């Protein structure tokens, strides 16, 4: 595990949307073969919750690291009587009582797929590819229902708007494109980035778009006019990922400068920097309640690189995928692996809003769908 160093000072999002440092102590837990967890150990960082007015015996906040790559903050638990069992204040994630089974493969792209995401209602999947095309698929039939053409180079990301009326995509051609979902027609092109645009996301109200690029910038755009609203330039290297908080008031970005930065949407100012990663940070996302950030560090050359990670919509589960050809389902109550799915070297994964289905893609033209019994 050379170079794989856990965060020394976890961070939590407080009720005021500020980030506060807190002292920690760490406990190392060796993973067993029964967890299907192929990394040597997990670390649990525990915060002594001294500021609570009413404090139950041993009440602490656990921040756990999956394979020392996936980091979360501010997961509330109850009393820990030993380190083999963690009791969490969460309603049981019903879907994990069932098992996921492979349903179908979706074929249509002619080159490597770069993203695959469910629509908010879970009935469609959007994909993007090196073939310069965005495709919309019907989940039940597996058929393509819309093909979007316009980019002149690899399409690196695409997403449905929250109301499912629009689609946004970005490309190595340095553009962001807005599309009408029903007609498939291009609405407008957003230009300004000077290098590959790596990620685009709608705000929760679908009035803004945030993007990031290899040009080291994070940019905020007005959906209606297509004009750039804010440009955020604190990163010193290529920016890999960007996302709005659930309330739309903050943005989180991660980059090859080893940093995760939190931004205020209204002012465009950086609020805080999350430290701890010692290498490039590939992914960072808010939990559904906005109180946690899940981040992913990619270690170049490692035989078990974790390539993507997602929260379930209720925050009860984490889904991760790896270049070792596996997808792991993790219970956030216990930090334990619930099920392992197998695929080729998996580069991306998503879980539907109701938790019933998982979609993943590898370094090829096909995507695969799993569903609960």
UniProtKB/TrEMBL annotation:
Ranges: WD repeats: 106-147, 148-189, 190-231, 232-273, 299-340
PROSITE patterns hit by this protein: WD_REPEATS_1 (PS00678), WD_REPEATS_2 (PS50082), WD_REPEATS_REGION (PS50294)
SUPFAM superfamilies hit by this protein: WD40 repeat-like
Alphabetized CDD domains for the sequence: WD40
Keywords for this protein: Repeat, WD repeat
Taxonomic superkingdom: Eukaryota
Gene3D superfamilies reported in the protein's UniProt record: YVTN repeat-like/Quinoprotein amine dehydrogenase (2.130.10.10)
Pfam families linked: WD40
PANTHER family assigned: TRANSCRIPTION INITIATION FACTOR TFIID, TRANSCRIPTION INITIATION FACTOR TFIID SUBUNIT 5
Protein name: Uncharacterized protein
Organism (species): Reticulomyxa filosa
